[in-house]
Amino acid sequence: MNYPAKFSACLFLLTLTACSVEKNFEAKKSEIIVSGDERIKMLRTKNIEIIEKELASANKNTLFITDITDVLLEPKSQLFKTPNEALLNRFLNDFISKGCGQNKLEREKVFSIVVQQPVEPVDENFVRIIRELQERNVKVLALTNGLIGSFGYIDSMEDFSIQQLNDLGYHLENSWSELKSITLTLESGKQILFKNGVIFVSKLTSKASKGECLLAFLEHIRIQPKKIIFVDDKRKNLESVAEIARKIGARFVGIEYTGALEKKNDPISDKHAQLQLSILEKEHKLLSDDEIESMLR
User: Is pLDDT above 80 for 39?
Assistant: First the structure.
C-alpha cells in the first residue's frame, strides 16, 4: 500500500473499516429525497424505526445491503467517533507528520492498533433486525470500503472485520452459507473480495464504486433481486447502487443513515485527544477514554 506522507482523518477512519463521513447536512428528522423515478426511493434518517418500516415487506426476492462503519458499528473511543472528526483531524495531521507518519511500516502498526480498538453497535436494534430478516429468508449483504489483506499487526483485515461483526452478534454469513470466498476482477483490473456475507471494496486499491462492485458480484453468482434496500451513511454510495438497480430492473430503497453522525456523545478535550494519540504513537497502546481521563485528573 502506498500512502501519502501526510494522512487526513478520512484515511485514519478508513482503517476502522470504512472511510470518513461527509458532514454536509444538518437535517434533524427523516426526509424523503425525490429521485424522479418511481422505482427509486431515497430517504435520509437517523431513526432505526424508519429503516425497520422499509424492511417490513422484505421477502426472499429482496436483497438487503448495509454498510458497516457508522451503520452497524462504531468505535467506543470518543475521539474516533464520527462527530469528533474535526477534533481528530486537527491533531492527526501534526501527529502523523512529526511522528510515526515518517515510516510506512511503523505507521501501519500504529494504525492497526486503532483498528483493533473496541467497537459497539450504532444501534443495538440492528442485530435483531438482521437476524429477523435472515429468519424470513431475506438475503443480507454488507458492502464496505474496508481494507483487505495484512495491515500492521493484523494478518487479515477481512477476517478481523468479519470477527468484529460476529462478536457483536452480526452473522451475515448465514445468508450465504452456499458461497465460499470469491475474488472478482473488474473490467478496470481492480479486484474486490466477497467473504462471509461481506463485499470488501478497498479504496486504497480500487477506484470502483460500490454499485460497480455489487453488479460484478450479482452477475457472478447469477441472482437478480426484484428489490434492493441499501443502508449507507454516504449519499454517493446510495446513488451508485441505485444506478445498478435501474440497470437490472429492480426496485430500490436507499437510506442515508445518520444515526452515528447525529448521536449525542460525551465531549472530549484537546488535552484528552493529544494524550491519547501521544501514547498511541510512543507506546503502541490505545488507552480507553476512562484511562485517559484518569490520567488527566
Answer: yes
